[in-house]
Here is the input.
Amino acid sequence: MAFAVRSSLFPLVYGNASVSLRRPGRRLPALLCKSSLRNNLSTSPSVDEQKLILEVKNKLEREYPMLPLGSYGRDDDEMILWFLKDRKFHIEETISKLTKAITWRREFGVSNLSENAVSEIAKTGKAYVHEFPDVHGRPVLVVVASKHFPAKHDPLQSEKLCVFLIEKIINSLPAGKGEVLGIFDLRGFGPENGDILFLKFLIDVFYYYYPRRLGQVLFVDAPVIFQPIWQLVKPLLRSYANLVRFCSSDTVRREYFTEATIPPNFRG
Here is the structure.
């Protein structure tokens, strides 16, 4: 099998098909837009939650004074609460995961990502945020696997596009919604589209920096050649593998959208 080995496991939101990780009903850390995070915290923190937020903030100030302050920094109450919920309010686990996320965000340059910054790689059509939600009200990210060529595309640019689209779709979450639907169109997928290293990047990004965001991932019309890749990736996903559903394009049309809201590459 001549699958390309590159920067992570499988193109997440852009290139190739990517694997979305997430447990139903769980959310993802707000490393995105501040307004998005506020919209998705359905209620104000309880008194007990406020105490835990303060405890985390104080520990971060003492032990990680070099971390930035402000939005998505070590004193961001809403981001801290997001990670507390992800870690089931375990203080040490929250701090460990939160510090990694804040550090990664700064090193990766998330705040510098823009339409212009990813315009060239976006022209490939590897992925896009669909203009309509699915029937459950979830924003939709569509990935077209056959348009991802790891041997030709700059892996860093693909990673930037990936993160940019994740932030963009989470930004579009309506009030009270915390999950998105990932659709990976595997029609026409071939050996030249496989990208194990990018899949690893994708899994790491969702687990460590954007946890609890993906409600479900659809692998649509997966060819036989995709199965070896799935067998390699599935163990890495752990419980997140339960979010993946292999289905047909007809299922996508019938169960997830109305006639007026079907993504363009699934019409007809």
